[in-house]
UniProtKB/TrEMBL annotation:
The lineage of its organism: Bacteria, Pseudomonadati, Pseudomonadota, Alphaproteobacteria, Rhodobacterales. The chain crosses the membrane at residues 70-92. Keywords: Membrane, Transmembrane, Transmembrane helix. It comes from the Bacteria. Residues 68-114 form the Putative Flp pilus-assembly TadG-like N-terminal domain. This is Putative Flp pilus-assembly TadE/G-like. It comes from Celeribacter baekdonensis. The keyword Nuclease does not apply. The keyword Transmembrane applies.
């Protein structure tokens, strides 16, 4: 109960705080008794403290009263929720402004750093903030220009007054942010790996490639500072002709000077690394033997098409910084032979690998490469972009090798002073009564037999490499067959002097070397030029992504090279 005195009048208000219905009658009774007590006190003239005359309920009764407790709890909860919601509002306001400032800052510095922008970078940044209505928050803009690049930095700051957090003694929320953008032309290293197999002679493919490749080089060099680009052209067919200077930098077995190719093993395709002879612990590579595994051209007439193309026009052009040199190389390519995409990509990747740096030094010393290319290939980084473009019109086909037994040493074929050769055969001779075998010396040009070596004591044995410069594999096998009269000799010699790696194995090798190159930071574009369906998946797998593969026909090859050149130019921007 609560009693209130006002003058001589005493107003007693009895408030029931526990039950609204069940205790209504009890409350009324209490009120009536209270009024009677007050009336009695007035009649007796008592004044003073009401509390001294009232008989109040025992305090224990109040402890049992619960009605109204939820209202108090709800009031406190409401206040807490309102405070938390208010804090959320302040935080959202802070985050909204922070996001808006950061986005504007990022756009502004990127636009200002763009090398194609001719306006003052600071003016560009200020204009972005003015148009966004945020100029008051921009505190500083700085531009640095160096070499081929530009760097723009800017800072923003703000103090946001709070609406609710100030009740917790937090009057403002502060923010600050920094943005920087740098655009420059990265050094560019490119390997153009180009198919010059025999099928490229069809439908003027080699001509269309020549135009497209030259246009590609033009675009790249036109958008580059002097000496910022090194471009290697790697023509490939059955093999890749590295040229005498490059090959002289390797340890090789069965060395010769008839051609300049290397036989890589399967493990060589698992890495982009290549080991010149100055490399610590450099391995020995097997030099490809100069021989013709395909054609028949009668006897002692030389080769028609060798596994390793010996012609200078199809040699690798390494580390060139000259547009005219690159265009001249591409325009003079000639097509023949099988298709070894894996070998082409191996060389293309190797010329982008830092392990090839000794080659650069040797080529600079020989005058074949500009001294400005010193230090290339460099380590792949934000300042050095490495790109390989792989073009083919077909799939990997058989790559032929000469077995070890017939790669070196003296043969059983003798050369006479007049240039004719002879070798011994077991000739079957028959009389009217019987047949027998006797050893004769067969001279294939005249198809005559002699009782001793043709040329007598003046005849000298040919080495096996010399034999393969005079005979194709087919011509040699036929000569043995004609000499002995047994077809078994033909089949023996073709099998013994010609072996190969299948297209399936070469596809696996291609996948390995493409994976290794991509893992080393090389960006790979592939072009299927009127290629069969079988080639598509192989080329897609080799490319950096399916989007880096181009399937083209005819003159579309120029569009593919142009698109790649544009992408490469854009990717050179360091941002």
């Amino acid at each position: 109960m609560l009693g209130i005195f006002r003058g001589d009048e005493i107003v007693v208000d009895l408030v029931n705080t526990q039950r609204a219905s069940g205790l209504a009658q009890n409350d009324a009774a209490r009120e009536l008794r209270g009024k009677k007590v007050l009336s009695s006190l007035r009649r007796k003239g008592h004044r003073g403290s009401l509390l001294s005359h009232l008989r109040l309920p025992h305090p224990a009764l109040y402890a049992k009263e619960e009605q109204g407790s939820l209202a108090v709890f709800g009031l406190f909860t409401f206040v807490i929720v309102m405070i938390l919601a208010g804090i959320g509002v302040d935080i959202i306001r802070h985050e909204t402004l922070r996001t808006e400032l950061q986005n504007t800052l990022d756009r502004a510095v990127l636009a200002a750093a763009n090398l194609e922008n001719s306006f003052d970078p600071e003016v560009v940044v200020e204009d972005y903030f003015a148009k966004a209505g945020l100029s008051q928050y921009l505190t500083n803009v700085k531009t640095e220009v160096s070499g081929q690049g530009r760097r723009v930095t800017a800072t923003v700051s703000a103090d946001i007054p709070t609406y609710f957090m100030k009740f917790a003694a937090v009057d403002t929320l502060s923010l600050a942010s920094h943005g920087a953008a740098e655009q420059g032309l990265a050094n560019l290293e490119i390997s153009l790996v180009l198919d010059v197999s025999n099928s490229m002679n069809s439908s003027n493919r080699i001509g269309n490639l020549s135009i497209a490749g030259q246009e590609f080089a033009q675009t790249i060099f036109d958008n580059s500072a002097p000496d910022a680009v090194s471009m290697s052209v790697v023509p490939y067919s059955t093999q890749v002709n590295a040229g005498p200077t490059i090959l002289s930098e390797f340890n090789v077995t069965d060395a010769h000077s008839n051609s300049y190719c290397l036989n890589f093993t399967s493990s060589d395709f698992e890495t982009t690394n290549i080991e010149p002879k100055d490399y610590a612990g450099a391995k020995y590579y097997q030099q490809t033997l100069a021989f013709d595994p395909w054609y028949y051209n009668d006897f002692n007439q030389g080769t028609i098409l060798e596994v390793c193309d010996p012609h200078s026009y199809n040699r690798i052009l390494p580390f060139s910084n000259s547009l005219s040199e690159v265009q001249s190389k591409i325009s003079n390519l000639r097509a023949d032979g099988n298709t070894s995409i894996d070998v082409g990509v191996k060389w293309g990747a190797a010329l982008l690998d830092t392990s090839a740096a000794p080659l650069t030094g040797a080529l600079i010393a020989s005058g074949e490469v500009s001294p400005s290319m010193t230090g290339r290939p460099a380590v792949a980084s934000a300042s050095t972009l490495k790109v390989m473009v792989v073009m083919t019109d077909g799939v990997n086909t058989t790559q032929y090798y000469m077995p070890s037994n017939y790669r070196s040493g003296n043969s059983d074929i003798y050369l006479a002073p007049d240039g004719r050769v002879s070798f011994s055969v077991r000739k079957r001779t028959c009389s009217y009564y019987s047949c027998w075998y006797e050893t004769k010396w067969y001279e294939p040009q005249s198809r005559n037999y002699y009782s001793s070596v043709y040329g007598g004591s003046n005849a000298t044995p040919l080495t096996w490499p010399e034999v393969w410069q005079r005979f194709t594999v087919e011509s040699h096998a036929y000569a043995r067959y004609y000499g002995s009269g047994s077809s078994n000799d033909y089949y023996f010699w073709t099998g013994a002097t010609r072996t190969g790696v299948s297209g399936t194995t070469k596809n696996e090798r291609l996948n390995d070397i493409c994976t290794a190159a991509k893992n080393n930071g090389v960006l790979i574009f592939t072009i299927g030029f009127e290629a069969p369906n079988d080639a598509e998946q192989v080329l897609i797998s080799c490319a950096s992504s399916p989007a880096h593969y181009y399937d083209v026909d005819g003159l579309e090859i120029s569009d593919a090279f142009a698109a790649i050149a544009t992408k490469v130019t854009e990717l050179r921007l360091v941002e």
